[in-house]
Known about the structure:
Blueprint: H1 11-17, E1 22-27, E2 32-41, E3 44-49, E4 55-59, E5 63-68, H2 71-78
Antiparallel strand pairs: 1-2, 1-5, 2-3, 3-4
Amino acid sequence: MNFIPNFPENLCGILKDLVGEKVIIILESGDKELVKVVAVKGNILIAITMADRKFKFVDCDCICAVIADCLDVIADRFLTSL
């Protein structure tokens, strides 16, 4: 059941809403990385790594978690519809 109207149902959907923001992605391998979300196309995250400023293309199925640095980002994107 979706308690928050228009809330994305998967991590790709959440990442689409965070385009332009810096987030930490945690991969199935346990690696975590600070990236800036550039786009999400289909099931692929396109991001720029903050450590070495390279593009990274990640299958969303390989991402276990997304951590946003600021609660304001979450509030602006997801809680405005409440």
